[in-house]
Structures are given as structure tokens and as C-alpha cells.
Amino acid sequence: MRVYNFSAGPATLPAPVLDRIREDIPDWNGTGMAVMEVSHRSAEFVEVAARAEANLRSLLAVPDNYKVLFVQGGATGQFAAAPLNLTRPGDTVDFVVTGSWGVKAAKQARPFVEVNVAADAAADNYASIPARDAWSLSGNAAYLHYTPNETIGGVEFHDVPDVGDVPVVADMSSTILSRPLDVSRFGVIYAGAQKNIGPAGLTLVIVRDDLLDRARPETPSVMNYRVMADSDSMSNTPPTFTWYVASLVFEWLLANGGLEAIAAINERKQRKLYDFIDASSFYRNPVRPDCRSWMNVPFILADAALDKAFLAGAAEQGLANLKGHRSVGGMRASIYNAMPEEGVDALIAFMEDFARRKG
Ligand code: PMP
Question: Ligand 1 center to residue 26 CA distance, Å?
């Protein structure tokens, strides 16, 4: 039986995409082979790769002066790739840190650049975003890095920070494609695939043309934005199966009305869940209301001794992977694009019933 899977990533995929994969294996496109058995340089696969890019460009309205790259190494690879591609030794990079992924991104950049932590919400236990006028920007940064959605803490920016001409580099792993986006506000956007794009193994990078030629000579070719752009992301063997699934996910989004349509559903899903939590005296979300994540909803029970019973009861109802991240405890419901609204309704019904029985 299929469950509602609230995992933070690798995360649930759209059911029609899974059906299509099942149909396509073992005879994909009349080739007599599964897609992961064909050469990445075959005409059939090159067509998949090109369609994936075209569909992503259409979904996000990516301007022509941006390259779309499909690379490996995860978002973590980009923590190092960004400074290697965009700075010279001695350059300063501004970091706005609103949770543990921002902390990790800054740490990975430190061997390469002067890290200026322009703002850090640690004192508030990463439950809010420091006000823009309180950021101490260096004034000469090669770029500013931030994490629009912190997957663990459930803190999300609901606008793009204005930092003038400094290129903005954003780790969009857990928010990309959840709603329309003005790509022209960014220098580089990157995201691991395993939440809103497809299975793990693929990393999306969207980079503005004028930033392609700044890489340090020692940058490994698989991390080099120029090399990847010039080779259509095939300077070496790409993760073909993941790329193919991503293309199906993009098609699924387009067939269902694109990002405006999914944003309306996502807005409703998160509002229902937060409204329920806020109205309850048994559950609590610690994040300041104006920066709560649409995708990752952490919550705690009135009595942590009930966590085990909550998780077991939820699993019995087909509600999987609600355990919070080990660093914060409690619960977390990740409600990415592929989580149907009925899944959120089922979760709320279970939470209501559990609180009534145990509260
Ligand atoms: N950034 C964010 C916001 C994430 O959620 C994650 C993974 N959960 C990462 C970075 C790390 O991604 P990866 O495992 O693909 O390196």
C-alpha cells in the first residue's frame, strides 16, 4: 500500500511519474532497453536532457542570459563549487545564516574565501530571519549567499533580499519549483534534486552568463560552471536515470498548470497545517509566523514522551517519516509539491484525533 510520505528528502514523487517509470521499464521509447541502460550520448537520451532543460526554463521563466546545468555532488558540492567558480583567493563572501544548511555552506566556503557572516539567527535558535536593515554586509563581497528555505528549521524567506549589485547565490534545495520565482534577481541558484525535482543524484544549477568565466584554474572540471555549460552538462557521465525522472516531474508540473497552480495548492496545504497547529494547545511550531516554510513544517508535542506513540500511530494510518531531524527532535512534516492535499488533510485528522486521545 502507498503511504503519505512526509520525508524531507529523498522525498515523495508524484504518483503519475512513478506509474510512467514503471511503464517505461524495461522497454523505453521502443528502444528495447530501460532508460538507464542507454548511452547518455545517444540521440534518445540527448532528447530527454534537452526537453528537461526546456521544460524547466518554461516553468521558471529562466531568462536567456542564464545557463541551466545538471550536475552531481549535491547541494553540498555547490557549497564549494560556488566559491571556486565565483571568487579569487582573498575575496570576501557575505553569508546570511538562518539555519543549519547556511552554517554548513559557510563552513565549506571558509577554505577558499573570507567569510563575512552578515547575519546569523543562532541567538533566536534559528526561528526567524534577521531584519534586512540589521545585516552587516561587507560592502565588497564577491557574492551574497543565503538559504531561501531551511529544511530542518522550517524557516523560509518569502521575498528575495535586495543587496544592490552584489550577485545573490541561493541554495534553493527545498523550495525550488514550489512557486513562481524571479530568476533575474539571482546570480546563481542551485538545488539538490531529491525534494521537488526527482530522485537524489542530480543537482540543478542556474547561473547568469557573466558569472561563467570567473572559475579558479584549479576548479575540478565537474564543478566548473563554464565546462559544464559548454558540454551541455555532459563533460562526464551524468546521472541519466535521475535526469529522466526530473524531466517527467517537470512535465507533470506543466501538465498541471505550472508553478502558479502548484503554488496555490502549496499555499493552501501549509495554511491548513499551520492554522491547525496554532489553534491547538497540544502542538506547537516554534518559527516566527512571517517566515514559516511552505515545504517543511516542524512541530513539537506538548509532551515529548508521547513522540513514540505519535509516530507509531501515524505509521498505522499510512503517514510515514514524520520524525523531526535528529538535531531538533519533535516532528517535521515535509509537504513538497508531490504531497497531495489529501495527505495534509489525513495528517491533520490524525493529529486532531491523537491530541484528543492523549492531550
Ligand atoms: N541545502 C539544503 C537546504 C538541504 O535541505 C540539503 C539536504 N537536505 C542540502 C543543502 C544538502 O544537500 P545534498 O545532500 O544534496 O548535498
Answer: 31
